[in-house]
Amino acid sequence: MHIDARNLDNNSLIEGDVCIVGAGAAGISMALEFINTNQQVILLEGGGFEPEAAMQELYAAKQTGQRYFPIKAIRLHYFGGTTNHWSGFCSVFDEIDFEKRDWVPHSGWPITRKDLDPFYERAHKIIELGPYEYDDAYWLKQQPSFKPLPVDKKVVWNKIWQFSPPTRFGLKYKDAIMNAKNIHLYTYANVTDIKANENVSAVQEVTIKNLAGKQHRVKAKVFVIACCAVQNARLLLASNQQNPKGLGNDNDLAGRFFMEHLEMKSAELWLAKADALKFYMWNWGTKVRAELAISRAKQNELKILNGTASFLPLDIGKNEPAWIDMYDENGKGDLSKFDEAEKKRDFSNKDIAYQLSTRIEQSPNPNSRVMLDTEKDALGVPRVHFHWELLPLEKISMRKIYETIGQEVGRASAGRVRLMEYLREEKDESWPAATGGGWHHMGTTRMGDDPKQSVTNANCKVHGIDNLYMAGSSNFVTAAAPNPTLTLVALTLRLADHIKRRI
Ligand SMILES: Cc1cc2nc3c(=O)[nH]c(=O)nc-3n(C[C@H](O)[C@H](O)[C@H](O)COP(=O)(O)OP(=O)(O)OC[C@H]3O[C@@H](n4cnc5c(N)ncnc54)[C@H](O)[C@@H]3O)c2cc1C
User: Fold this and answer.
1) Cα(288) to centroid of ligand 1, in Å?
2) Does residue 126 have a pLDDT over 80?
3) What CATH number has the domain bearing residue 72?
4) How far is the centre of ligand 1, averaged over its atoms, from the C-alpha of 475 (Å)?
């Protein structure tokens, strides 16, 4: 069922059992889980069904620290959220990613990979991925043209990736949501405030506003905030009527520990013998491929972060601009230079030289954060002040990943690895101008058992507030190497099961 909140009488009261705020990957996955249950679900989406400049403007942020993509351009503010332009690259987090590593400060999730496994499998169906299978031996058997590099798995292994079509959640699941009798989708329903009771132990209602000047209230038993990692933190911080620090922020942690994946060109691989490396190649339509990853034993020995290396023929890779240069200062993106390079890719070519690009987790850092700015948006909500900060561990780890891969391919006489200039000098902690992320936002309401160290508990519930849950990658404690959406959908399905049990 769909209602445009601009058409309701001003100051309407909307009531239900479960209120989900945000209809992107997390919010839609959550709503799908409740279809045909006896719960009345209110799904609040800030935007409509199409992109609108005025909606994007609500995301505009002050940005400081490490140069970053314009926040207002990269997260999309309408039904389907940022999946309206995501690329569909998916892989699972490794066991080590959930563990406490003594060389990675603030690491260690309150759940394990095993806890998430059944939900990863369910998430595969929503994201339209292939079989829940990440063992390279399985895929090498399926596809005889796949030939792995002769690396020692104890040091470097083939991490499997699967690719979504990519599923546009807003298009794929619109009918299911609209036709469900117990799901009440409200568009143009921007949550601007979460109102708690007097002792801030439970949420009573949320306020929704739109640019048409209407304002309404929504009451429910349980509230799930699924607005993406930056906006999740903003909403908690801006909801400060009952507690001036904001909700879930007694220990000044909401918004801190923002994490990205560093995704950048890092080295060249020169093979001893030209090869098409089909097992490692990607193009639109590819279902499965591998990236080289560093074993847990080697990560432990070198005390480095988890990261992988992807491949692109060097003559294409070296001509592609850095991702970070894709947007102009007004936040307008230009993909044409990438499209040109993509079209030139020919899988049958046997190349001698390949560009290696890193995908690496950012070390959790309390100073890398989302704060509130003094300026307000058109709905009266303080804008985001976004501050991205990197640490030396990321640079050290990146260098060691390529040294390790170089040693491995050299040992096997398969080729040589040449580090890019910025990685050659061991003591150099600076970052080149091309430094950038993968458009992945994580960690701003991190999970944990200890309220002094985290914002949400192992069930994604905000510590100390009985009926307030956060959905999405804001819960991530560490970022792992893979892109976040498969893991955030899995975590959301786990949360949906928890809420169903609870209600
Ligand atoms: C160019 C690009 C490529 C990407 N490629 C990949 C990839 O290959 N693999 C991968 O795993 N990830 C990728 N991502 C990241 C992926 O898009 C996100 O991880 C995912 O969309 C996050 O889901 P979400 O539901 O948390 O947030 P979103 O998808 O952003 O959804 C949030 C929703 O909440 C709504 N909302 C926000 N604030 C409010 C409010 N106050 N009130 C009501 N509603 C609100 C928004 O309108 C939106 O619909 C990519 C991102 C970009 C930008």
Assistant:
1) 23
2) yes
3) 3.50.50.60
4) 14
Determine the atom of ligand 1 nearest the C-alpha atom of 472: 26
Query: How many separate domains does the chain show?
Result: 2
Residue 78: CB within 6 Å of ligand 1? yes
- Residue 81 Cβ inside 6 Å of ligand 1? The answer reads yes
Which residue type occupies 68?
Y
pLDDT digits (tens, 9 = 90+) for 189-235: 999 999 999 999 999 999 999 999 999 999 999 999 999 999 999 99
Indicate whether 348 pLDDT > 90.
Answer: no
Helix and strand element counts for the chain (H, E): 14, 20
Q: Is 40 a residue whose pLDDT tops 90?
A: yes
Does 137 share its domain with 110? no
Q: Determine the average pLDDT of the residues in 403-420.
A: 97
Rounded Cα gap, residues 460 and 93, in angstroms = 18
pTM for the model:
0.98
As given in the structure block, the two tokens for residue 121 are 């499998």
Q: Are 120 and 29 in contact (CB under 8 A)?
A: no
Q: How many CB atoms lie within 10 A of CB 218?
A: 22
CB of residue 191 inside a 6 A radius of ligand 1: yes
208 lines ligand 1 (CB under 6 A): no
Task: Kindly state if the Cβ of 386 falls inside 6 Å of ligand 1.
Answer: no
Domain that holds residue 137: 133-163+261-361+391-430
The pLDDT score that the predictor gives to residue 145 is 92
Q: Give Cβ neighbours of residue 328 (< 8 Å, ≥ 6 apart).
A: 334
Contact partners, residue 501, CB within 8 Å, separation at least 6? none
End-of-domain residue from the set 430, 461, 484: 430
Express each pLDDT in 264-312 by its tens digit.
Answer: 999 999 999 999 999 999 988 899 999 999 999 999 999 999 999 999 9
